[in-house]
Amino acid sequence: MALKNPCWKVTMLKGDNRRDRVLTREEFERLVPELPDHLIPEFYVAYYTGMRRGEILNLTWEKVNMKVGFIDLEPKDTKNSEPRRLYFNDVLWNIFKKESARKAKSPFVFTRRGRPIKSIRKGFEEALKRAKIKDFHFYDLRHTFNTNMRKAGVDQSMIMKMTGHKTLSMFNRYNTVDQDDALEAMGKLDLLLAEQKASKSSDQVQTGISLQKNRDSKEPLSI
Fold first, then answer.
1. Which domains does the chain have, with CATH numbers?
2. Which residues contact 64 (CB under 8 A, 6 or more apart)?
3. Which residue, 91, 143, 179, 222, is the most exposed by fewest CB within 10 angstroms?
4. Model confidence over 84-136: pLDDT tens digits?
């Protein structure tokens, strides 16, 4: 009788569990109104920074610079033990200014009824159902951020520095990212999202014009 599994030293192949799901602009506009008020700030922070859920929920005010406008994550705060600095755009400025009113009540940035928020899963999943968005998880906001940054033309090394991805390590070792680079990256993201919103509005106007022309062409001629 075998006392040990004869295959115990065999390395199992890992399945491909990568996800390519991103939140489209249309889905974004459907989801935001359905989010409970206490989850809106966390959602925006994830959408505009690519921060992980744990990094957001555990964020304390000592890591937020309200004079310049950035978040400093220390090695102990990140999954890969690498420090990161993430700068604000206008949306994040407004969020952190609003949240700072509760600063005296808790060291944590994101709270509910004076206590740090521990979980967002239930509220987020219910909002997704109301918005009729399928196969999307909070973590996918990280991939959405990466994709939007790439489409905005932000350099790959900059995106990797902002999200903490550690591939292409040799390239990053010799590539310096400074404050001006990071602020320019956030500006490019804002421009892309504004263009997406404007494009959607333009398409809706053009569709309305086309429908009106079709109706006019079908009207009977008066005799």
1. 25-165+178-190 (1.10.443.10)
2. 70, 71, 72, 96, 109
3. 222
4. 999 999 999 999 999 988 777 889 999 998 899 999 999 999 999 999 999 99
